[in-house]
Predict the 3D structure of the following.
Amino acid sequence: MTKKEMVLTRGTERKAYVKQMFNDIAHRYDFLNHFLSGGVDIYWRKKAVSKLEVQPDDVVLDLACGTGDFALETAAAKNCRVVGTDIASQMLVFGKQKLEKKKHVPKISYINGDGEFLPFKTGSFKGVTIAFGIRNMGDISAALKEMKRILSRKGQAIILEFSLPVNPLFKRLYLFYFKHILPKIGRAVSSDSQAYSYLPASVEKFPAVSEFEGWMSEAGFSRVEHWKLLNGVAVIYRGINEEKS
Ligand SMILES: C[S@@+](CC[C@H](N)C(=O)[O-])C[C@H]1O[C@@H](n2cnc3c(N)ncnc32)[C@H](O)[C@@H]1O
């Protein structure tokens, strides 16, 4: 199946494809992330974590945690405990290696798991975060419902995801870089012929901001709001679970 057909697919077939893809590029993931974004992804994660309101020692789930950059940022900024979950075990291997290199080990643990069927009790986290992960889920609505389910009452979800720029000229320039230059660099460095073409294709397929906020509301989140970053290249979404578990 081509990457175009794959982004149009939903469900278990796509999930298996995405899992394999991240296992294959795990060894190059961090380098390419920072290189292809010019380091701006680091600032975006900090900004997204700043929107999360939790107390020290609260427990936060970082879903689709990958190699753990968002989990590390959350644990450092909020002094809370973080559980990172990802479907691709190789991404977690690199995440665990990064933890071991830290002088002051943050309160982070990693568990291999699927965001659509989270292995946690209802209401067990004060916060749930997901950075550049929701777009990759086989069933986005199912993952949003799971995120809402595992939150305690008044718990918050923070979602950081790519979108498309608002300014038409900037959007044209950006799409040229995103669709024609980025995949070539990604292919050369990661040796994966599809992964960095899948990225722009999946971003173009992802719902616009207002539509995605509607999906969050349908999943049960209240007071849904967003902040655009870099003219809308990325967006931070926040929603609250106001229901009793
Ligand atoms: C672009 S990476 C983001 C990693 C990390 N959050 C970051 O900010 O760098 C997307 C991650 O989503 C994970 N993922 C995709 N589908 C998933 C699922 N159904 N359940 C859990 N993780 C999933 C992938 O394995 C991958 O590590």
About this structure: Residues 15, 18-19, 22, 33, 64-66, 69-70, 86-88, 91, 114-116, 131-133, 136-138 surround S-adenosylmethionine (CB under 6 Å). The domain at 3-240 is CATH 3.40.50.150 (Rossmann fold). The chain has one domain: 3-240.
